[in-house]
Structures are given as C-alpha cells and as structure tokens.
Amino acid sequence: MKTFCGRANPATGALDWVEESEEYDYHQEIARSCYADMLHDHDRNEKYYQGIRAAVSRVKARGEKVIVLDIGTGTGLLSMMAVTAGADYCYAVEVFKPMADAAFRIVKKNGFSDKIKIINKHSTEVTVGLDGDMQTRANVLVTELFDTELIGEGALPSYEHAHLNLVQAGCEAVPHRATVYAQLVESEQLWSWAQLQPMEVDGRKLLPPPAVSHCAGAHSVCDIQLSQVPPHHFTPLGPLCTMFSVDFSKPVSSAPQSHSSSFPAQSSGRAQVVLSWWDIDMDPSGSIVCSMAPSWTYPDPQSWRDHWMQSVYFLPVERRVAEGEELSLTVSHDDYSLWYSLQPDRVSKGCFIRAPPCRPCCVCQAHLVWTRTRFGELNDRQRTQSYVRALRSVIKPDSVCVGVSDGSLLPIFAHMLGAKKVLNANSMRGVQILGIRPDQLSSTDLAGEQISVLIGEPYFSTSLLPWHSLYFWYCRTALARLLTPNATILPCSATLCMVAVEFQDLWRIRAPCGTCEGFDVGPMDEMVQQSLDFRESHEAEPQPLWEYPCRALTQPRAVMTFDFLQCVPEQPIRCQGSLPFTRYGLLFWSEFYFSYREYINRP
C-alpha cells in the first residue's frame, strides 16, 4: 500500500507531495544504518570470536551446559560464533523486525536453527520460564550494544535488566569490561565548533551576545574520526586519564554517576575540549582488547571503523590553566550520555562522586539551531574576509540590503560597512529582523523602498546536499519584483562541481560482505541492497569528507552553472555527460561566486 506524503524540498522551499510505500521508513533506516561497516570490521569480529571461545571454554571447564544470551544480535553473527565454539544453546534477541527476520534466514542458511532461537523483542521484554522466550537463564552474556559514546544505545539499562532477570549470577560476559579514557586539550580548531568567536570587520570588533558567549552549549557528543585530526591541531593539557570502567559480568547500575581523575596540568593554556574514547576487554585477564583509540596513538595502522569512532566533548566554558596546577576532570553520565566538567583538584579528591554535576544545556538557542559545522563556518576568518571583501566592493551609503540565509552574519557585515538599511539579520541598531519567507516580503516591509543589494552566504538549515543551497536562487526569483533595475546579487552565480574518487575506507559502509568470519551473511547483503534500491541508492549522501581520505581518479569538473542574475527558468536545467572510470564514488560540491576573485565552497 502506498500513500502520499508531504516532504519539504530543500532547494525550492516548496512542499512536494511524494508517493511513498508504508515500508519507506524502515527501508530508509536499513539503508542508512551502515550495518556492512560492522561486518567488514575484522578486528572487532576477530576479538569477539576470541572472547566467545574463551568464555565458552571457561563454562565447559566448570562442567556446565553453555547457555548463551546474545542481546542485539543483528545478523546473528555472535550467536553463530558461540554455537561454533561449543555452546549448547543460544537465545538471540533483536528488537528491529527486518533485522530479526534477516538473522533468522542467516541462522537457517548456516545450519544453526536447532541451536539458535531468534527472539524479536527488546531484551527488557524477554521472559524466562517453561512458557517464556527463554527456558532457563543464560550463563554466558554476549552483547554488542555500544555506540561511539559507549552507552548511547541504552547499554546500561539493558545490562541492568539482564543481570536481574535473564542471566545467572556469576555469568561470563563478552565483552567482559569496558574502560573510558579522556584527555584535556586546547584546540582552536575544535573549540571553533562550539562557541561563536569575536571577529573584526574593517577594524571594528564584532562580539557575540553575552547570552551566546556565556552559554554552556549543546550537551550532545560530537563524534568524529579523530584519527583525521592531526596531533599538531591540539595541545594536551593533561595525560590520558582512565575515567571509569564497567564490569559487564556483574550487576550493572544505570543510575546517574560521576567519576573524577586528578592530575597536574602538563602545560599552560586554555582548557576547552576533552577527547575521549573507550576500549573493551573480551576476557577477564584483559588479553583480548578491542580499542577505539585514534590511529596516532599507535605505531602501526589500526583497523578502520565508522560505527564506533571517537568523541569530542566541549567544556561548558573555557578556563585558563597554569602548568603544574592541580586539576580534576570529571565525567558524568545518565542512562544514555556522558558529559565532562573541570574543577580545581581541591574540589574532588576521590575517583567516584555520588551526586553528578548537572548536565550542561543550551539556553541561548544558538546551539539548538546551528550545527557544529555551522559554528565552524561562522568562525572561519578566511571565509569571513571573503564575504567582507565582496560586500565592501558593492555597499554604498544609500544601499538597501536584504539578507537571505538562516542565521547569517552577512547583514551585520553590510551594516558595519555603511549600508543605509539592512533587513533580515541579527538584532542591531540599523538592522531590522524580518521573520518571514522571501516570497511573503512586500514593499510595505521595505517602507516603499527597493532592494539594491541582495545577499546570502547562502546557508539554510534545511540544506544537506550541495544543490539544496540553490534555494537562494528561488528566493531571488521571488524577490525580483522588489529589486532595483541594477540590483547587485551576491552571490552572482554558482557552479556544481564533481570529481570521481577512490575512498580509502568509506566504501566499507556500502560494500556487500558475503562471508564474515566463515559465516554466510548473504541475506543481510540482500536486505540492505533491497532497501538501497527502494530509493536510497538514487540519492546522494552527505558526508564530512575531511574525515574520510580518498584519491582523485579524475580532474574536478564543472557539471552545471547557475546564473543568479537571472530568475529561475521555467524549464528544467539538464546536463548529461560521461566520465572515464568504472567504480568507486562521485563527490559533489558547490562553488558560490561573489566576484571573479571571491568564491565560497559549500559541500
């Protein structure tokens, strides 16, 4: 059955009615979940297999039957490992029905249906007993419930419930424990993603409002491929600290907690950012370790993975520290997230605090509407100077400017450069905010005047793909009746560019797996491909390409050019062509031209 759904078109701003299958949502979830990345992670799979073999052997050595509970089974891979290692029976729990169905087919295809039961429930709903989902409690607990932040997928409540209701006391657990590490650093690059910085325009300083500069910011984790941030882009202010560990073989509490680590500052600087990652020990002795540490902490290249990365946490406020000063770094957590705070060491001498500090939250609203990438753009001095140079060349004392972008500083720049009137910008004397869509703007809003300068970065919060920012062109077209005959349009044009590349690792998130650790997982490949074919494979995918190294296979090429001095044509613009390559990926980005010398890239 299909139904019509209203979906906003980021490029035109219009509401498009699209015929969608009732199964669209889960197809989209499957297509974007990158399950293949986990199966291609040989280091992860190998360490799990080693840990499972060791756990099964320890239970057998005690003369017990091995009953395994696998929570979050996914493809059923870990359950099949357990049975192959000698487990007598395995209960595999998977809450997502399409994945549970795939696991059922994979288990059957590999000949384990008589020893593995797929339970399509959340683990907290699983029952034990003669008429229950499980006949008896398990004595081996196998899980893969982790995300980049370790606990973000609800690992703690799931473990807490499992120990109370589903597994025996003293059970074996794979992984056996997890340990979280953190390091306090100063980094202008990373800090620019968190707070709006002062900037200069023609020798005049522009300061962020106090509500913004004093705001603690968004509490959510910033997960990135930290291996792509070179060590010279930050200054360590303290050692790598072991913040806390969780023993999964014992009862686990999901209650909020805090843990502290004390140390003397290694150097003077501004404490701004905490870099964090974790590792998991697959056995009690700690001899089988799967680490998420960035590659620059190891002499040899480590296994690449995108499902588990590293975390960047921004302190609520930057703080100057002196070399040798005693500091205490505190990590707090609730059921699903972590946050960090920094105090002088005298505040906390212990490593465990029962009353965790309050989680920071945004009170200025800016961190709720601007992404961290957007903060980075606004703080980019080179980018700002490009805008200022372009504006300086066209702004006159009698200019009437209208800014078309979301949360842009360009109208403020225009005002500081001497424009007579500026509309649709931040609160400032001489700048008027218009909280309406461009197609709703009338001459009354302009007090009878006409627009002489139309400006935009362009940036819109709904834009994900390079061509989405063409919404500026549609806005310019809607405002054509209000423009002076010789109005200046900035940017004046845009070019959609393309290059073919070979990715070093990113290809893994889409590549079929086939066989994983000796098990046929073909049904999962088929499920993912079916969901990709449903619609996702026909759409481009936004990626922060600086995190994913690649090699260009062609020269960059201009695909289409858009002239903003003209209105949007009534007929579609089409472009056809070919490239001399047969595989890998295509990268697209837009270049917006403000003059023949000034242009801005927008990925």
Write the layout of secondary structure elements.
Layout: E1 2-8, E2 15-21, H1 24-32, H2 35-40, H3 42-61, E3 67-71, H4 77-84, E4 89-93, H5 97-109, E5 116-119, E6 138-143, H6 155-165, E7 167-174, E8 177-186, H7 188-191, E9 199-201, E10 204-206, H8 210-213, E11 222-224, E12 235-236, E13 241-247, E14 257-264, E15 269-281, E16 289-291, E17 310-321, E18 326-333, E19 338-344, E20 352-353, H9 366-369, H10 372-378, H11 381-392, E21 400-403, H12 410-416, E22 421-423, E23 431-432, E24 451-455, H13 471-478, E25 483-490, E26 493-503, E27 515-516, E28 519-520, H14 522-534, E29 550-552, E30 557-563, E31 585-593, E32 599-602
Parallel strand pairs: 3-4, 3-6, 4-5, 6-7, 21-22, 21-24, 22-23, 24-25
Antiparallel strand pairs: 1-2, 8-12, 8-13, 8-15, 9-10, 11-17, 14-18, 14-20, 15-16, 15-17, 18-19, 26-29, 26-30, 26-31, 27-28, 31-32
Helix pairs in contact: 1-14, 5-14
Organism: Oncorhynchus tshawytscha (Chinook salmon)
Protein name: Protein arginine N-methyltransferase 7
Domain Protein arginine N-methyltransferase: 176-343
